[in-house]
Amino acid sequence: MEALSDEEFDAILGEALDQLPAGVTEQLDNVALFVEDRPENGDRNLLGLYEGTPIGERGIAGFEMPDNIFIYRDNLIDFAEDRDHLREELVITIVHEIAHFYGLDDDRLHELGWG
Predict the structure, then answer these.
(1) Pfam families under this entry (predicted)?
(2) Residue 24 falls within a domain, yes or no?
(3) CATH number, domain at 27?
(4) Pick from 111, 102, 107: which is nearest to 24 by CA?
(5) Strand, helix or coil for residue 72
(6) Is position 70 within any domain?
(7) What pLDDT sits at residue 62?
(8) Distances in Å between the alpha carbon of 77 and those of 25, 74, 110?
(9) What is the pLDDT, as a whole number, of residue 109?
């Protein structure tokens, strides 16, 4: 796929956020979404990452550090065939990472089609 400006990527990301399935963000609390070019370790295959404590493992409300979801812009652009595919992969990646917040592991997400 051709290079995208930050503004073009942000517009496609906004469209992807609008297309998230109903209810997926319903209980989402204390979670920040970050867009970075690539992971710190340079992995070119990682599209997203969830860092935090899944909701079922949390302690007393209000005493947890914020969870973070990272979206890796350059990896997603490299992976996508075109803008529509990028939008689809953004939706899948965001849902996948949010699902980790709800306690689902990678195996279960692949079974559900959100791998």
Answers:
(1) Zincin_1
(2) yes
(3) 3.30.2010.20
(4) 102
(5) strand
(6) yes
(7) 60
(8) 24, 5, 22
(9) 83
Residue 62 lies in a domain: yes
- Write down the residue that tokens 């340079």 correspond to: 42
The number of folded domains in the chain is: 1
- Strand ranges (DSSP E) for the chain? 31-36, 48-51, 67-72
pLDDT score recorded for residue 104: 86
Domain that holds residue 88: 6-111
* Strand-strand pairing, 67-72 and 31-36: parallel
Q: What is the pLDDT of residue 80?
A: 96
β-pairing, 67-72 vs 48-51, is: antiparallel
Give kind and range of the element (H or E) at residue 91. helix 83-101
Radius of gyration for the chain, computed over Cα atoms and rounded to the nearest angstrom? 14
pLDDT in the model for residue 63: 67
Domain contains 1:
no
pLDDT < 50 regions, the chain: none
pTM: 0.89
Q: Are 75 and 45 in contact (CB under 8 A)?
A: yes
